[in-house]
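Need the bound structure for beta-D-mannopyranose, inputs here:
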Amino acid sequence: MTGHYPELFRRHKSNPILTADSWPYPIHSVFNAAATLLADGTTLLLCRVEDRRGHSHLCAARSENGVDQWKIDAKPTFLPEPDYYPEEIWGVEDPRITYVPELKKYAIVYTAFSQHGPGVALAFTEDFRQFEKYGMIMPPEDKDAALLPYQIDGQWVLIHRPVSGSRAHMWMSFSVDLRHWGNQKIMMEARKGSWWDANKIGLSPPPIETPEGWLLIYHGVRHTAAGSLYRLGLALFDLKHPEICLKRGDEWVFGPQETYEQVGDVGYVVFPCGYTIGSDGDTLRMYYGAADSSIALATGSIRELLHWLEEHGQ
Ligand code: BMA
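Answer from helper R.:
Posting the output first, comments after.
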């Protein structure tokens, strides 16, 4: 034993790796990016970009090594289209990407924001240049959603986070056609009282498929007199019955610690929406929004995360 908690995620030394200054056109801030590896090994981040109106759109950044030399689209990649999708009138936010082998397409699940609140919307793409929007699939207030990569028992599975009263838990919905969703099941509840994940939790990046189950990195929001603290925890769910929680870590494993995570538009926020997995099948590169102002990178080992859950999970 030492006097330290284990460090499961190691921050990259050049953090933050993307800021508004990196952008080829004027933006206010860039944060909460989805991530995927393209077929040629390129890392693609689909970044949430906020303009000076306060509205967000998505913009793709590509890099060979996933760390630097980002090639950022010269114009917004994915814009709100309120004429066709009125639920996007105040912007599109916080995407999560899942590659769906059966469709040979990437699913993008994102937050569509309007006067009615945030809802969950779905789009597909093959190349991150042209997109097919399906529109809103979960009405407000709902967000923090991602699709599982294949059907389970003939049904597509969506994880999402509706709000009920002052509390917000993670739910699952099912669909046979990706348009009509139902058969809702609760997946994981926010704890109560003084817990780090009391009252409000949500999925962070899409689940990580492992032989032991779906490994989830989720965020817990602790409301304090000084504001909200966004921190990350781990949980494991059954592969065939993903609504069944096998283990849930008792402690948070990653929280705002560096200046770029504590100071920004919304301080004390770490908010990952994506990861990539290295060719060893184990190295996890987690891309996260820092203080709603920049994008940072932290690296972990899937094996170590599972081992930690084995010891700290209930
Ligand atoms: C959450 C989300 C995130 C944001 C976070 C902190 O509710 O909307 O987009 O990063 O709040 O502001």
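Comments: Helices lie at 259-262, 302-312. The domain at 27-312 is CATH 2.115.10.20 (Tachylectin-2; Chain A).
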